[in-house]
Amino acid sequence: MIGWTLGRYFFLRYVTITFYFLLGSFALTLILDFTELSSKLAALPGYSAIQAFGLSLLRVPNIMQQVFPFIALFAAMTTLISLNRKYELVVARSVGVSAWQFLLPACAGAFLFGLFAVLVVNPLAAYGTEKSDAVQAAWRSGKMNDTPDDRVPWLRQKTDEGETIIGAKSIINRGLRLVDASFIRLDKNKDIIERLDAKNADLEDGYWQLSDVTRFVLGETPTSPGDVRIPTHLRPEFVEESLARPETIPFFELRNKIAAARSFGYPANAFDMHFQSLLALPALLMAMTLIAATVSLKFVRFGQSGTMILGGVLAGFVLYVVTVVVKAFGNAGFVPPFVAAWTPVLIATFFGVSFLLHKEDG
Fold first, then answer.
1. Among candidates 108, 84, 105, 112, which has minimal Cα distance to 4?
2. Tens digits of per-residue pLDDT, 248-262?
3. Which helix (H) or strand (E) holds 58?
4. What CA–CA distance (Å, rounded) separates 314 from 326?
5. Computed from CA positions of residues 327, 330, 335, 337, in that sequence, does the dihedral angle turn out positive or negative?
6. Are the CB atoms for 271 and 153 separated by under 8 Å?
7. What gap in Å lies between CA 230 and CA 184, rounded to an integer?
8. How many other C-beta atoms can be found within 10 angstroms of the C-beta atom of residue 324?
9. Which residues are CB-neighbours of 286 under 8 A, at least 6 positions away?
10. How far apart are CA 59 and CA 125, in angstroms?
11. What is the CB neighbour count within 10 angstroms for residue 135?
12. Which of 125, 257, 332, 337 gives 62 a disulfide partner, CB atoms 3.0 to 4.6 angstroms apart?
């Protein structure tokens, strides 16, 4: 069995290299996001470079979550290749340490990396995403020529007075506040009664509270009634599911949100899919480590070229693409979220284990 000293050495090597990859990815993501954000928001009235940089800092944790599987893959490949080139793995194998034993520290590091991503990075990402959405909404507020947020759907509500079609440029507070909102009210004959444009619309218990309203009625001069209340039967759980992005809800709150939404008859597939994906993340990072091992363990002994390394990168990329595609099916409800989240992980794990069992003699 691998000793404590050797196991700790391999573990610390993996952790150190993973930290360097995290640091480099963070810096690169921050620079790219700040550049892109500046080009999009520079023309807005409240824009400033310092605030835009702070906004990018808030957005980076959420973006980093998307690249964690690749960081785990590249960190494991780099660790194993560096150990092989220095003949440290050769010496370990010569004294009877099998591949499974010296892969255990790397897998343990990947599992802890996944726990760190779920328990620490995810809450920071949810907080940062929500705050950055609020800041961008404040900058865009009242700028009529600004491009609306394409991800905001239109809602339709029915009351005793008729129907109301609701849209907005931006959503914050997990969908409970609409910025630059439009309420188009219809009578029972589907004819437009009026249009209300509000700076903000907050969902309260049984009504929408509209502030800074401008009322448009066909054939009449627009008026500014100030604050207006619009009755609604919409529940906060439904609005959150329809408008809020799952990324804005921390891991620790997702389970309660899912239970609350389903208690009112809403499927909450997007929230459940996000929750299951976070649960499966530590196992996914371990699977990435096994995939890295299939192309890295024999680098020195058999003089492999960069083709095998490229094969490992492509295998990791294919696994990531499959995970994203299956996640889309889970969000749409075609596949149960639990199955959609865990199937790619199990396939990758079985692939890595099968390949190592076939190739390794240890």
1. 105
2. 889 998 888 888 778
3. helix 49-85
4. 18
5. positive
6. no
7. 11
8. 12
9. 107, 110, 111, 114, 349
10. 7
11. 17
12. 125
Measured distance CA(234)–CA(228) in Å, rounded: 17
* Stated pTM of the model: 0.80
Model confidence at 31, in pLDDT bands (50, 70, 90)?
very high
Residues 327-359 as b/e (b if ≥16 CB within 10 A, e otherwise) read bebbbeeebbbeebbbbbbeebbebbeebbeee
Report which of 183, 154, 338 is spatially closest to residue 243, judged by C-alpha positions.
154
* Residue 126 neighbours by CB distance under 10 Å: 24
* Strand arrangement of the beta sheet that strand 155-159 belongs to: 155-159, 162-172, 177-186, 192-204, 207-216, 223-231
Helix 99-116 vs helix 337-359: crossing angle, to nearest 10: 160
* 119 secondary structure, DSSP code: I
Residue 265 burial (10 A CB sphere; 0-12, 13-18, 19+):
exposed
Question: Of 72-81, 87-96, 351-360, which one has max mean pLDDT?
Answer: 72-81
